[in-house]
Amino acid sequence: MSIDTNTAARIARLARIRVEERDLPGLAEEFNTILGFVEQLGEVDVEGIEPMVSVTPQRLKRREDVVTDGGQQKAVLANAPDAREGFFAVPKVVE
């Protein structure tokens, strides 16, 4: 597949990127280079290869999904300029 200047202009418009008319041939060339790399990837034989999520094999740490209140109410409210009855106190803004 080859990208011409008209297609490059359309892609730029769809991406809402302003590209000057004089820069369109260079942009089309860059698109063609990228497409060439993608075509090279398509030539690689990946038969029998497991898909990877990461380059290093590791398992994510897991914990039981339990709903809690966090147990840090006093610590959080300690940073508040004004706290009353276990809540943040703020000035009234609606009359």
UniProtKB/TrEMBL annotation:
Reactions performed catalytically: L-glutamyl-tRNA(Gln) + L-glutamine + ATP + H2O = L-glutaminyl-tRNA(Gln) + L-glutamate + ADP + phosphate + H(+); L-aspartyl-tRNA(Asn) + L-glutamine + ATP + H2O = L-asparaginyl-tRNA(Asn) + L-glutamate + ADP + phosphate + 2 H(+)
Enzyme class: ligase
Record Pfam families: GatC
UniProt GO molecular function: asparaginyl-tRNA synthase (glutamine-hydrolyzing) activity; ATP binding; glutaminyl-tRNA synthase (glutamine-hydrolyzing) activity; transferase activity
UniProt-listed GO biological process terms: glutaminyl-tRNAGln biosynthesis via transamidation; regulation of translational fidelity; translation
Range of residues in the leader sequence: none
EC number: 6.3.5.-
Lineage top rank: taxon: Bacteria
Keywords: ATP-binding, Ligase, Nucleotide-binding, Protein biosynthesis, Transferase
Family: Belongs to the GatC family.
Assembly description: Heterotrimer of A, B and C subunits.
Function according to Swiss-Prot or TrEMBL: Allows the formation of correctly charged Asn-tRNA(Asn) or Gln-tRNA(Gln) through the transamidation of misacylated Asp-tRNA(Asn) or Glu-tRNA(Gln) in organisms which lack either or both of asparaginyl-tRNA or glutaminyl-tRNA synthetases. The reaction takes place in the presence of glutamine and ATP through an activated phospho-Asp-tRNA(Asn) or phospho-Glu-tRNA(Gln).
Protein name per the record: Aspartyl/glutamyl-tRNA(Asn/Gln) amidotransferase subunit C
Organism: Palleronia aestuarii
Higher taxonomy: Bacteria, Pseudomonadati, Pseudomonadota, Alphaproteobacteria, Rhodobacterales
